[in-house]
Amino acid sequence: MSQWLISQTIGISLLASVLLLLHRSNLKRLGIHYTYLLWLSLLLLPASSWLIQAGQQWLSHSAQPSQLAVFRVYMQQAVGDVELLAGFSLLSGVYLIGVSAMLALLLGHGIYLRQLRRNALPCTLSFSAPLPIKQHAAVNSPMLSGVFQPMILVPHNFAELEINAQRCVIEHELRHQQRGDLLSNTLAWLLLSMQWFNPLAWLAYGRFRDDQELACDADATTSMSSQQRIRYSETLLHYSQQPLLSVMNTHYGNKHTLKERIMQLQQHKPHGRKRVILAMLTLSCGLSAALLNQQVMADTSSADITATTPINRVEPNYPLEAAKQRIEGHVSFKFDITAAGNVTNVRVIDSQPQGMFDHEATVALEQWQYPASGAEQKDMMVQLAFQLEPTAQQ
């Protein structure tokens, strides 16, 4: 399994654990709106990790002279080259099968919902709504469908409901559309697809979807009176036993969170105006997890890996045969530093492709010079990455 996947799994697991453990406390202190939005930090994690890695690559590249075949050295490289397909091991094959199944499920649900939308009939109500409202016999619970062309799908007998109940349902689905929940759900499923083997990711996804409904209830009932909230609760009960039709749509009725949703309506509190603070907190969670993630991946055995920076670093030669075939890779080392700052006891702990760059990288590393510290430092780690200039690959 590639270092990139392991890196993402560590970061997502750590952040998901924190959010799940603090969920009840966050509900009391921050309210449902901010608690729900904190889940966005999980979606930010892969992007923030990639941005940090890209920044490291840019800084490393800009600090070195241009060469036809160049290498880049990364101290504490966060993620190695993606090797998921190399060798196609049994483990990577199982992983790809799982990802494919998750994506196929998403695609299948999308096709099914598209057919429902095409075959649905207009639903005539006594009030107007900014989105099309259609009915279909296969729809058991009202839902919002369509990321780019949204519409509200309702059961065939929806028009028989009392008008106030109809308004409650439509207002709920409109709030989903205004908040962009369908796009969030799609992104969350894609992230879950990458982490289908991770039980913490499944727990976080389920809690994310539940919090989404709670936050939408709070939005929809902000200006409602106590009597209107009672009507809203009764409508929730009416659709509570209906199963979720698709992972891509919203779901008005949800028996698993019914009690929690009704209790929230009884204890409804305004969520205030602290969006800037919440955005900063969410971004900080994502970036912090990415940075912590990088540190874990860079070194799992030595706390002194960044304690010393070389004062003289010799660049290894790019093997001619590797350059001709446009082969890239890396070599990871453990080594000791003498009291005088010389590199000694160099050991290769990992190389990809195996043996391709070992000799040149070892020759170069043995010539590195560190500041004299007066004490020997053992088991330092470094990874030398051999990569061609982008122009050389085109």
From TrEMBL:
Membrane topology label: Single-pass membrane protein
Domain TonB C-terminal as annotated: residue spans: 303-394
UniProt superkingdom: Bacteria
Keyword annotations: Cell inner membrane, Cell membrane, Membrane, Protein transport, Signal-anchor, Transmembrane, Transmembrane helix, Transport
Major location (coarse): membrane
Membrane-spanning ranges: 6-22, 34-52, 84-108, 276-292
Main function: Interacts with outer membrane receptor proteins that carry out high-affinity binding and energy dependent uptake into the periplasmic space of specific substrates. It could act to transduce energy from the cytoplasmic membrane to specific energy-requiring processes in the outer membrane, resulting in the release into the periplasm of ligands bound by these outer membrane proteins.
Entry similarity comment: Belongs to the TonB family.
Protein name: Protein TonB
